[in-house]
Fold these 2 entries.
Entry 1:
Amino acid sequence: MAKVSFTAARVAGFKCPADKKQAFLWDAHTQGLGLRATPKGEPSFVFQGPYMGTDVRITIGKPAAWSIDAARSKARELQRLIDEGKDPRGLKRAAIAEHTEREAAAVAQAVTVADVWPTYLEEGKPKRRDAWKPGYLEDIKRMSAAGGEPKKRGTGLTRPGPLFPLMALRLVDVTEDTLKEWQDQEAKTSKHQAARALMMFRGFLRWCATKPKYRGLVDKEAGRAPALLEALPSMKRRTDALEAAQVAGWWAGVEQLSNRTASVYLRTLLLTGARREEIAGLKWQDVDFQWRKLTIADKVEDTRTIPLTPYLAQLLATLPRHSEWVFASTRTLKTDTANIKRRERDNTKAGKAAPLGAVATVGTTGRMSDPRSNHAKALQSAGIDGLTLHGLRRSFSLLGEAAGAPAGAIAQVMGHKPSATAEGYRPRSVDALRPFLAQIEAHVLGLAGVQFDAQAEPGKLRIVSAP
């Protein structure tokens, strides 16, 4: 190979002939250093030398970035590696891989909770479940929301959820200390809300720990640190339930509610022992009046089917069907007088009758969202303190026992996870459950002082007598 002493002019003027795929120019001063050019590309400094009986060629770089002296120095360095028995190509690949790994690690270190949270909501799920329950998913979204949206009820804007401050943290920064600082701040607003938010976030950390992409970035035990657990409020097990003597007063207070939908909803909770969200999510397609069955979205299984007892069937049939929801939320849509008069003028021009009509119409806004205010009114009327909506579920269980229904039948109707009970748990068919649930209903109605005509047409419930 012809060699020349590299100069700036020679390097700048070196071109590849148009009839060749590539051309080389070799330096006379440094072994293995050359210039490689192609017809369309810019020349590059290269190094070529024998390694293990084969010529090795490595690109150093373009003359715009490498001076002749720097290229000569790099060529001598590569030759020394060959002299030491090392393959410079492998070292270069290792250096590139190391650099790429460092960059990837830097990117991973920058990943925040907010970056991963949407994927968690989409792919995550609770223990022993195939997917989130819709109600819980909405709840966790609300807990992590940024706020600033118009309130659905009342005026003003929503506040950030208790989990929102954690969204800005890098995953690597989620530690016992940062969680403790967050917990102390949120506890100033609500200790119980902060505790619930922590439970939700611990689920997120467990999920991250199962993903190879995030496993090395999180400490899944950070949410279980002693400092956090010691600060949690005591979770006393609630025992509120209706006493037998209180049923009549509670029933009368619920019947007197001006909100008919809430009144029926509350009585349905007591007569089925179902969870509040299970009944709130009931749709008309889930109510089988012909075969007297209710299909309920279940917490443990996807759904469970229970008998539709005589009184409850007539009670549900009295509800208006505003939408697909059995317990639909209704609101008054007010129409101002100016709009009414405008329609009146338009109708007059069209030769139609144009009565003023009503100034309001009834519309629907989905299912009933929060019946607690109505329940509070009923409790106040009955003089009962401290009874929660979940307390009605406990009441069903206790009243069912008093009615003489088997514990296993009560548990199955309520949707409790199957377990060995004193009477021996065994799944029963809907028809096998029917007499037990009717027995419980009759007992509750007896305590409430309610008599009704079981043969009356559904939708025409007729109270025979009440105290």
Entry 2:
Amino acid sequence: MDGAKKQVFTRRITQANKTELIVILYDMFFAYLDEAKTGYENGLRGTDESLDAIRHASLVLEHLKDDLNFRYEISGNLFSIYDFCQRELAKCIYQAKPDGLFVAEDLMKRLYGSFKEVAKADTSAPLMKNTQKVTAGLTYGRNDVSEVSLSDSSRGFYA
């Protein structure tokens, strides 16, 4: 993942509440899958970058599994789906075929829509406090809207 994408994800994480964080993890998963697919184009075995992207996507799934609350019955079902997707990604590495990427992507996209709807309904405050405020639209570039970080000089730290 290039630096610009990492910066976008970092900014989103700093402004997110607990359910938006799950949606961001899904977005990261899909970004890694897109990177992995490019390495398998034209029937190639896969590049080192695509294999790294698969490993990172698997780590995102591991994080999603760790975030489950097993007091609820649905968590067991989600754990099974995440575990199955991880095994499909592992098959991509040892079989050198991209088939598992598409299977995992299909399953995760079905869940993604549901989590996105839940995130829209969640009006809780962002989890991170004392982060920089990001405002879009104060300045306009030639082709897009620029974002400006407005920071409080103390950000919660006093001496």
